[in-house]
Design goal:
The protein is an alpha/beta fold. The protein has 2 domains: 202 residues, D-Maltodextrin-Binding Protein, domain 2 (3-Layer(aba) Sandwich); 194 residues, D-Maltodextrin-Binding Protein, domain 2. 47% of the residues lie in helices and 14% in strands. It has 18 helices and 12 strands. The strands form 3 sheets. Strands 1, 2, 3, 6, 11 and 12 form a 6-stranded mixed sheet that branches. Strand 1, helix 3 and strand 2 form a beta-alpha-beta unit. Helix 3 crosses helix 13, helix 3 packs across helix 14 and helix 11 packs across helix 18. The protein is globular.
């Protein structure tokens, strides 16, 4: 397979006992030698983009789980803020290309894992950890498949988010005579949005500053209009991006954008969620990390949630995990980190702050908060779909092209031009009809 041909040599497999080897190393004084097996290590550097309130709180719970196993190790939090990971991924790519990896980093599964990290040869196999920890017995088959490239496992999932959720301010809806049941249809949402517009309230809060938020909203619209089977076909070439179903979704998207706040270019996703929390907007369509912000703010009792209008049959999954790099500076601590974050206790502590559910199936759902129990229930019964906005469904080039089309749509609000741009991108990705 291609990734085996591109895989880099792991310096920990090279014996450094000879004078020649020593001389070779001395030619590159900046090169860091990894610790030997069993050698004491005093640091652990973890790279992520979890810096917002709920994200940082969740990450701290994972740090606490590691501290229980290695209390004397200094944890270096190398999180990079902004861009929904785009800034962090760019910085990480620079480090990896320069031979300066952290001890572990956050990755989504499937396409992102392979294209960014496995195929270039930046990740070690963690098959042995999967076997030692018995993860295959407690991680769902679908997540195992997304964690595996070829026949090798490279990541341990730590949490599963649902991407297709709308969160709403209960008091704002009550004050305007709007009721939301267990599901919300597209027509019901439009009726509610029109009522809110007439009352001078922003129906749908959007923050488009980081670039991922509009593609995120669009994939929720796609899932609602197309349904699970046709949505999946977008990524394997069986659904025509120039077809009538996508046309209808593009028109839905333009209608949705007619309900958003004018200041969306200045806001990130959490800024949009803040509008809902404050009551200056009624709804926001975002992944369930947004609920984590409500938990951290202590206002979850006034925040309702339901699947994005029309998408109750789907569960767009956004799965976070951590990997083991080739030449980890502190390989023993890196492996301990993966064991810690893969544990049931760590994932249970992580979930409510991050707004996700554990990736493990052996966690008692009754120990989750109310939102977590709802999400876990739908995860068990809905069709689980891959997210393009978060890297799993399509290769990075196609993902970026969809993002660019969404940026253009924010300016043009032209559904026909939007679909044409998407169809051209699909053809370039060899997914066009």
């Amino acid at each position: 397979m291609e990734f085996y041909r591109s895989r880099k040599v792991n310096r920990r497999t090279v014996t450094l006992g000879s004078a020649a080897a020593f001389a070779a190393v001395s030619v590159f004084p900046g090169m860091k030698l990894a610790a030997q097996e069993g050698e004491a290590e005093d640091q652990l550097e973890i790279f992520s983009w979890w810096t917002a309130g709920s994200e940082a709180a969740g990450l701290e719970e994972l740090f606490n789980a590691f501290r229980e196993m290695a209390p004397d190790v200094e944890i270096i939090n190398a999180a990079v803020a902004g861009g929904a990971g785009a800034n962090a991924q760019a910085a990480l790519q620079t480090r990896l290309a320069g031979g300066d990896p952290p001890d572990s980093w956050q990755s989504h599964l499937a396409k992102e894992l392979n294209a960014r990290y496995v195929d270039p040869g930046y990740c070690e196999s963690i098959d042995d950890l999967w076997e030692e920890e018995g993860w295959a017995d407690v991680i769902p088959e679908g997540l195992i498949a997304q964690s595996t490239i070829g026949d090798v496992k490279y990541v341990i999932p730590v949490g599963v988010h649902r991407g297709n959720v709308v969160f709403f301010n209960k008091q704002v809806l009550t004050d305007n005579g709007i009721e939301v049941g267990e599901e919300l249809s597209i027509d019901d949402f439009v009726a509610a949005a029109d009522t809110l517009m007439a009352a001078g309230i922003t129906p749908l809060a959007l923050g488009s500053k980081d670039g991922f938020e509009t593609p995120h909203l669009f994939e929720n619209v796609l899932a609602a209009r197309l349904g699970p089977e046709v949505y999946n076909g977008l990524w394997d070439g069986t659904t025509d991006w120039a077809g009538d179903e996508v046309k209808a979704a593009c028109e839905d998207m333009v209608k949705m954008l007619g309900y958003v706040n004018d200041d969306h270019p200045a806001l990130t996703w959490d800024g949009a969620m803040s509008k809902v929390i404050e009551g200056t907007a009624a709804f926001t369509s975002m992944g369930d990390w947004a609920y984590g912000n409500a938990v951290v703010a202590g206002v979850e009792d006034n925040i309702g949630y339901v699947a994005h209008p029309g998408s109750a049959a789907s569960y767009i999954s956004v799965v976070d995990g951590f990997v083991l790099p080739v030449d980890a500076p502190h390989p023993n601590n890196a492996r301990t980190w993966l064991k810690a974050v893969g544990s049931a206790d760590a994932q249970l502590a992580f979930a409510p702050n991050k707004g996700c559910i554990p990736a493990r199936t052996d966690v008692d759902a009754s120990q989750l908060n109310e939102y977590g129990q709802w999400s876990a229930g739908d995860f068990a019964k809905a069709a689980v779909l891959a997210s393009n906005a978060h890297g799993a469904a399509a290769d990075p080039q196609f993902q970026a092209a969809i993002g660019e089309a969404c940026v253009n749509l924010l300016v043009s609000l032209d559904a026909e031009a939007f679909q044409m741009e998407l169809a051209d991108a699909a053809t370039a990705a060899e997914l066009g009809a």
